[in-house]
Structure to design on (176 residues):
């Protein structure tokens, strides 16, 4: 089985570059390209246990405000959601899902290419799961500089076989 991970489709990460990325992701989900896959949504929350709150107390974002809300343009209620309060999205419940459905391959989408996307790709790789990143389905709130830095490192750790073109994503969605 394959899965799609969507990281942080939230208002607090909204900018023209990330919105363009999320619209592409939503199109894939909206058109039922993903009906034979498991889809997981990860949402960031800067709760009281977050290292961002503990170590960067000046950062008030993503606590109990509008930053945490989902981007309005697509209903994600049909998908399993997890909250994370650090760069890593990996938690025991998610690992149990991977085992339960024998997921061997993930397409990681969303933000931040140079943080959560990168770390998630590395952690899943270390678990023996094949990871794919499509540059058109990830982005950084730091713009092209963050995007390029993240993709550079992703190519280094996953190799060229870990990168998939937008055109080939649709082929991948239908491969069993």
């Amino acid at each position: 089985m394959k899965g799609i991970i969507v990281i942080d489709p939230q208002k607090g990460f909204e900018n023209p570059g990330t919105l363009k990325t999320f619209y592409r992701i939503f199109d894939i989900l909206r058109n039922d390209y993903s009906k034979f896959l498991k889809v997981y949504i990860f949402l960031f929350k800067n709760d009281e246990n977050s290292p961002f709150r503990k170590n960067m107390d000046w950062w008030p974002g993503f606590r109990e405000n509008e930053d945490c809300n989902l981007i309005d343009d697509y209903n994600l209620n049909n998908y399993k959601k997890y909250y994370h309060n650090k760069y890593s999205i990996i938690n025991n419940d998610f690992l149990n899902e991977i085992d339960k459905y024998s997921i061997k391959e993930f397409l990681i989408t969303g933000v931040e290419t140079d943080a959560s996307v990168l770390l998630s790709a590395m952690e899943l790789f270390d678990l023996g799961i094949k990871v794919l990143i499509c540059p058109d389905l990830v982005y950084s709130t730091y713009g092209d500089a963050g995007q390029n830095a993240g993709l550079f490192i992703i190519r280094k750790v996953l190799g060229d076989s870990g990168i998939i073109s937008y055109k080939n994503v649709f082929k991948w969605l239908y491969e069993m």
Q: What stands out?
A: The longest strand covers residues 130-139. The beta strands are 2-7, 38-44, 80-84, 105-111, 130-139.
